[in-house]
């Protein structure tokens, strides 16, 4: 604690990040030929089919995440604490009642949302958000709750709320919560837990910050997690050494991938392997914000410390990955089984082929906006959330042309 690092608003996830600095990063990314990934990507895109168009749909207040219900309505989280039920058939939205109070500050607020794999039977929805400590309100941390979504009356609402996970310890800063949640095919719940801009918790087994967490669907501990002899917190942990993982997704082979925001440079796409250490804050392909004026020790590179698992792909200049899915549909055959990342500072959607070695970026779709989230609809089209309210339509849909 007390390490200042990159808490000064220069972090690229920060919703307060200046448009100027993100724009300059973006233009660097699209024009510079210094980064092999960026130049490869732009060359590759020109040869790819553009069989899609982007339709403007609706507007939300600082949207952060979304999930599609079985009837194709959307649940969309807004950072200040509202959960909106959106019906694409009539473009009407209606707030879901009963959402717990969130701490809307810095990068924190209402965060991710997922449905239980058996949602149709049990109506469980899972939400992550930032909270203040009830006793020491200056201390903040992420939590995950589950609740039954009651859609039977005219006022949709959450009932039977259970808090099933808490980030520990809480810190004074309001960054790097991560708090992405996802289910696997076996019904296990996975949570990305950011290092809270405190660096060292990512290597501390008494903290669940800077880790990827695996739990049963009710928040209890699976007995086959890898760290069973290093205390109670460690029993939640699947992997360690993470910075700020905002994207978690399973590919068609059920391998887990994580998209991690690097510091200045060094965004990462990691293949997640049980008990592996991904090296933060010891190694990174980036540098600290502020360069030599930063008081943190310089990062080593992943190649310097082979005991840490290196990313399958890293980006410098950065893309600022905010979400990750693998495309399963057939509407856009060129993206089948490819990773699709939302890019904040790159103002783009980034397509990655994870089947090739090395893993490589194959397409970058310029969106002229910071992209916060991309999900696949049941019909194979893509729902996209642009960041903040800078566009009159920040929910858009990518459909066939
Ligand atoms: Ca790493």
UniProtKB/TrEMBL annotation:
<feature type="domain" description="Glucose/Sorbosone dehydrogenase">
    <location>
        <begin position="60"/>
        <end position="389"/>
    </location>
</feature>
<protein>
    <submittedName>
        <fullName>Glucose dehydrogenase</fullName>
    </submittedName>
</protein>
<feature type="region of interest" description="Disordered">
    <location>
        <begin position="1"/>
        <end position="37"/>
    </location>
</feature>
<feature type="compositionally biased region" description="Low complexity">
    <location>
        <begin position="15"/>
        <end position="37"/>
    </location>
</feature>
<dbReference type="Pfam" id="PF07995">
    <property type="entry name" value="GSDH"/>
</dbReference>
<dbReference type="InterPro" id="IPR011042">
    <property type="entry name" value="6-blade_b-propeller_TolB-like"/>
</dbReference>
<dbReference type="InterPro" id="IPR012938">
    <property type="entry name" value="Glc/Sorbosone_DH"/>
</dbReference>
<dbReference type="InterPro" id="IPR011041">
    <property type="entry name" value="Quinoprot_gluc/sorb_DH_b-prop"/>
</dbReference>
């Amino acid at each position: 604690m007390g390490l200042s690092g990159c808490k000064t608003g220069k972090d690229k996830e920060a919703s307060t990040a200046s448009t100027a600095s993100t724009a300059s990063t973006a233009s660097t990314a699209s024009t510079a030929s210094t980064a092999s990934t960026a130049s490869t990507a732009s060359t590759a895109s020109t040869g790819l089919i553009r069989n899609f168009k982007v339709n403007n749909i609706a507007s939300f207040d600082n949207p952060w995440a979304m999930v599609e219900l079985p009837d194709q309505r959307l649940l969309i989280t807004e950072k200040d604490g509202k959960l909106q039920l959106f019906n694409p058939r009539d473009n009407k939205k209606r707030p879901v009642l009963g959402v717990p109070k969130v701490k809307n500050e810095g990068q924190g607020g209402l965060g991710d949302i997922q449905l239980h794999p058996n949602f149709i039977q049990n109506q469980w929805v899972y939400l992550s958000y930032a909270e203040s400590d009830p006793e020491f309100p200056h201390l903040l941390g992420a939590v995950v709750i589950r609740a039954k979504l009651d859609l039977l009356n005219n006022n949709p609402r959450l009932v039977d709320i259970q808090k099933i996970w808490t980030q520990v310890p809480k810190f004074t800063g309001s960054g790097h919560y991560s708090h992405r949640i996802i289910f696997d095919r076996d019904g296990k719940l996975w949570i990305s837990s950011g290092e809270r801009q405190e660096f060292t918790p990512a290597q501390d087994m008494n903290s669940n910050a800077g880790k990827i967490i695996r739990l049963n669907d009710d928040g209890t501990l699976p007995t086959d997690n890898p760290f069973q002899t290093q205390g109670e917190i460690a029993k939640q942990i699947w992997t360690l050494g993470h910075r700020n993982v905002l994207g978690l997704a399973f590919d068609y082979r059920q391998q887990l991938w994580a998209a991690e925001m690097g510091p200045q440079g060094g965004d990462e796409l990691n293949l997640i392997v049980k008990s592996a250490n991904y090296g933060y804050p010891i190694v990174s392909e980036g540098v600290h914000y502020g360069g030599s004026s930063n008081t943190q020790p310089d990062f080593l590179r992943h190649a310097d410390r082979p005991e840490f698992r290196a990313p399958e792909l890293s980006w410098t200049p950065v893309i600022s990955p905010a979400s990750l899915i693998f495309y399963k549909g057939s509407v856009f055959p060129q993206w089948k089984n490819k990773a699709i990342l939302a890019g904040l500072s790159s103002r783009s959607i980034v397509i990655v082929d994870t089947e090739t070695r090395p893993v490589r970026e194959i397409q970058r779709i310029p969106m002229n906006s910071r992209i916060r989230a991309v999900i696949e609809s049941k019909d194979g089209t893509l729902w996209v959330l642009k960041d903040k309210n800078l566009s009159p339509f920040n929910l858009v849909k990518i459909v066939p042309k």
